[in-house]
Amino acid sequence: MNAPRLDRWRLVQTAAHAVLIGRVTGRPRTPVGAVVVTSPVVQLAEDRGTAITRSGSIYRLGAPWPADEALPDTYRLALVEKLVASASGAPTAERLAAITAAATRCCQPGASVQDAILARLRPVSLSWTEEQLRPQRVPAKSSR
Hints:
The protein is an alpha+beta fold. It has one domain (5-112). The chain contains four helices and six strands; from the N terminus they run E-E-E-E-E-E-H-H-H-H. Strands 3-2-1-6-5-4 form a six-stranded mixed beta sheet. Strand 2 (17-25) and strand 3 (34-37) form a beta hairpin. Helix 1 packs across helix 2.
């Protein structure tokens, strides 16, 4: 897969969405190792090491940032910039303070994403057992 790779990443919740933040390699026009914040994640398959965002970007997931460690200020600032850019209208001092507080919360050790949001991101896995795939015998109709 020729998709960009995110290392030292974390899934963080912003309002009703989850985004990935991490250091990217292999993304055109973005310096190697730059901290990026993705658009909202629509599918996350950690077991396969991939994520798909609302914009249609696919990312390969490298090593995550440890959940019990705070993210560095560069991550928090990137998240603030992304949230300000995605906000409608000119940011007021009050709105900027709320965005900064939300970004700070997301970067704390143990910050998590709500279970309901995580459930929406997990790919549906369809698998069947041998028994379920075996043709079923349909009883013959009786003629009465």
